[in-house]
Amino acid sequence: MIIQRVVLSSRPGVNGEPVAGNFRTEEATLPDKIAEGQVKVRTLYLSVDPYMRCRMNENSGSEYLLSWKLSEVTDGGGIGSVEESKDARFAAGDFVTSFYWPWQTKAILDGKQLEKIDPQLVDGHLSHFLGAAGLTGLTSLLGIREKGHVSPGANQTMVVSGAAGACGSLAGQIGSLEGCSRVVGICGTDEKCSILVSEMGFDAAINYKKEDVAQRLHELCPAGVDVYFDNVGGDISDTVISQMNPNSHIILCGQISQYNKDVPYPPPLPPAIEEIRKVRNITRERFLVLNYVEKFAASTMQLCQWIKEGKLKAKETVVKGLENIGAAFQSMMSGGNIGKQIVLVSE
């Protein structure tokens, strides 16, 4: 059987910006027969995420992320339907997901790496299992619960950077649901600011490209910042940290401004900001959602419940066609999207 697949064609360089041309679509042959324990799947949706930038380097810089190899198929979060199964847990017609889904139209996968998903949990929006009800939502929810120390009734203010992105747009909503009294987002366009406030329940939003972030934070967070959901790192984070209260908490979700730079993760803070962090006893611990696998099932049910109740709104930017996944990746890394970036491979 002839299928389409996407491979890594070239590396952008450790400090380079990724472009669509780093990926190549090509034909490949899939075996007609599957072995015991294997499942043949048709790909429906693929997830495109900022962490993948690290996988484009020869060395990902992380012990838990494998680098993609040149001229070999790329992979990530995916959802598909079962066409044939030799694993007793799956039958033709089941919907399944995996963190290691190859970027190709059809695939033969080991049943052990698949998990069955129920479309009814998300009112039929299967793609939500890659975003708000998937690893993105889990990262936001567990990050806040494990590292944010949010207490209902404590009158806490949360600031979210990269607030219009996949994690950020969920984190602000979850912060409110978990008990923060005020949530302020930071993003890069007036349109994104408007959507955060009018649709996603943020109390206010700052356009860092047009506004003085330090001044606006003073105005919007007069009692200081208690919880900071940090998606970006860099200058924006330094500005937020300088306005954080004693014994406050930073949730280190991602450092997108640092992904194209050869620096350790998490990147060290400038000396003056690190001194503020120490003096005020601000926690800034690395957060890795995969360390909390035992909490995934209950947390996923909580996310699905909020989605069905309309309390958690899932924004998605959907691009059609496997051949466009490279362009989708480039757009996402340049900050052009709102919410989760999804590629629709087949319907």
What does the model show?
With 347 residues, the protein is of the alpha/beta class. The chain contains nine helices and 15 strands. The longest helix is centred in the middle third of the chain and has 14 residues, at 135-148. Residues 255-261 have low confidence and may be disordered.
Kindly summarize this structure in a few lines.
The chain is of the alpha/beta class.
Strand content: 25-35%
* Main beta-sheet strand count, sense and barrel state: 7 strands, mixed
Task: Please trace the helix and strand order, writing H or E for each element.
Answer: EEEHEEEEHEHEHEHEHEHEHEHE
Please tally the β strands and state the result.
15
Q: Globular, elongated, flat, extended or rod-shaped: what is the shape?
A: globular
- What would you call the structural class? alpha/beta
Number of contiguous helices: 9
Low-confidence parts:
255-261
Helix content: 25-40%
Query: From the alpha-carbon coordinates, what is the Rg to the nearest angstrom?
Result: 20 Å
The overall pLDDT average reads 93
The quaternary state of the protein chains shown equals single chain
Straight-line N-to-C gap? 19 Å
Pfam family, one: ADH_N_2
Keywords: Cytoplasm, Lipid metabolism, NADP, Oxidoreductase
InterPro entries: ADH-like_C, ADH_N_2, GroES-like_sf, MDR_fam, NAD(P)-bd_dom_sf, PTGR2
EC number: 1.3.1.48
